[in-house]
Known about the structure:
4-stranded antiparallel β-sheet, 5-stranded mixed β-sheet, mainly beta, about 500 residues
Amino acid sequence: WDVNTGACVRAMGDRKGAIRAVAWNGDGTVIASAGDDRVVQLWQSATGQRLQELHGHTDAVLAIAFGCEGRILASSGCDRSIRLWDTVTGQLQQVLRGHDNWVWGLAFGSRGDLAFGTASDDRPSCLLASSSDDCTIRVWDAGSGETLQTLHGYNNWIWSVAYHPHGKLLASGSLDGIVRLWDVEAERQRQCCLGHAGWIWSVAFHPEGSVLASGSDDGTILLWDVESGTLLQTLFGHHNSVRAIAWSPDGAVLASAGNDCCVRLWDAATGEPLHICEGHAGWAVAIAFSPDGRSIISGSGDRSAIVWDVETGMLSDVLSHHEDSVRAVVYSPDGSAIATGSADGTIAVWDAQTTELIRILTGHDNWVVSLAFSPDGRYLASGSFDGTVRVWSVDDGTVLKTERDRESWVQCVAFSPDGTTVASGGADESIRLWRFDSNDEAQVVRAARPYEDMNISGVTGLTAAQKLTLFRLGAVETLQSHRPGQSATRSPTTRTL
């Protein structure tokens, strides 16, 4: 593109599949491109002529970068490897392995960093940094292929929480692909369920509490035994991420919504598909059953919420008002009302029988992504990317309580079965339990970190960045960075499970 005019100067390539990465070399004479076809291609920028095709990756290529004065091209992707190519000959020089997940980012170090490299006659030395879904950054010597440093400390966002019907257990799903079961009363993590190969978008307990369902980026729904944490069944059918799941009140039907724009209904006993509900023009990202189990409602990126008939799988009504995607849907416990939350920052309350709009709740200044009615239906809790949890009066739409205790997004909320506590999960990898009827500080629960409570107050030679990483992994410094009379870095209400 011409930056000044915005006009297209040249189009290159006839790829099969998406192009995921492009990069210029240092002097602007060569362009590299790569993508889903696993091939890295080099182009002459002035003419658009293809110069070379570099083959070697076994899965999609997500990142490319020129380095070492343009003599080396690095590529990485879904096969978890980093490949270093000679840009003149097109020969593969090295394959760097160490990451345990997709490698999304690459960056070469500057000339001032070369003192840390190990040069050889045929392999110029420079530093290469890579970032991965394994939550690490690795720094490599591009000449020798040696890993010089591995940086840890990045958190996994919690996308979903659900209370057990009896209230003693809490389930959570996060970006690390792990479903966790928490014993809230005993203040410990009870089960760690491994089986998904992608982010966990949604978790939901069977009404009887014996089975937990989880939906993931890997396109599957897994059913878990709550007592043992063992995998019972895998449901296949969605062609993309499973964004939301819900059980019918009697537990006979499981509903799921996904990025394939479909809502699917499953026989909970056999795992067989019952209906595929098609009607959304965008990702289906939220779903909920009516209390009588006869209807479900789904929210979508197409800005609508659709009500479906469970018995036939047919579309019943379309709710349209929001100016952006519908990220959350929920029925009131008595089935008289529907609430929808949107990326436009508003919450709409609808009459479930007539589908007429009753009122709009405003107050959030970012996406509303989770909603939950209290068991008695008098209150509605909302979680938003503005970092707040709000509790609203359903009768008049007033805000009764606002909790702002996060520096990150709130991504999920749930009421406890007795209605006294709201649980929220977010991007800081913690779950907060709020007492709705008091002003007490929230109880914070999180998985134990690798260096939990390790005292580093006497350790010398640590940089500020290294200390920050250790603090994120649970280390404490008892002689500073805390108020008198309190523990070093954690408030008295924090619980490590």
